[in-house]
Amino acid sequence: MNYNSKQIDILNVSLKLFAEKGFDGTSIRDIAKAADINVAMVSYYFGSKEKLLEAIIIYRVSDFRMILENLQTELISPIEKIKKFVSFYVNMLFQNKDFYQLVHFEMVNQKRACDFSAFSEIKKKNLKLLQNIIEEGQKDGEFKSNCNSLLIPALVIGTFSQIYNNKKFYIEMLNLKDDKAFENYMLNTFKEDITNVVLGMLIK
């Protein structure tokens, strides 16, 4: 779905507030005040807070679909496409940590009447695009025949979340100086290491 600039502003403001105060701790009035609009406009565009949450999820996940579609058509080898995929994924996770924490909480708890079917459909389409890249590599003889594309996003996001959510522990274990050094590690060393793990699953 295409959103206008005001709707995108509302989505971004809402995500920030949901991450800071929690979904239940954020009111439509809070969102309207932060976005410098009236309450009626939030309701006009999205209907309810639950529908607003659904829109945030679809909007953010759709961005990654565009990246995958462009990546699939690039004139580079399947191995290079996978490297770019993992790099994009790690960057997206890092830049949207609040979003993924919010999604994880809502999907696990299922506390409210949100319809996540559209979100699931986008995820399926994204997985299909990833599968197309893997099949290209199999056809070229670069990738194993028994690769499971389902495991790759789960591996990347699961490992990223495990390390990031235990930042203090990993700063100590990795002998990192501070938060800045940790962020540099995640965007460089971690990205390289997890890319090698994914390629190890795929390459013959």
UniProtKB/TrEMBL annotation:
Keyword Nucleus assigned: no
Residue ranges of the annotated DNA-binding region, renumbered to this chain: 27-46
Single GO MF descriptor: DNA binding
Signal peptide range in chain numbering: none
Ranges for domain HTH tetR-type: 4-64
Alphabetized Pfam families for the sequence: TetR_C_29, TetR_N
Key words, A-Z: DNA-binding
Stated name of the protein: Probable transcriptional regulator, TetR family
Species annotation: Flavobacterium indicum (strain DSM 17447 / CIP 109464 / GPTSA100-9)
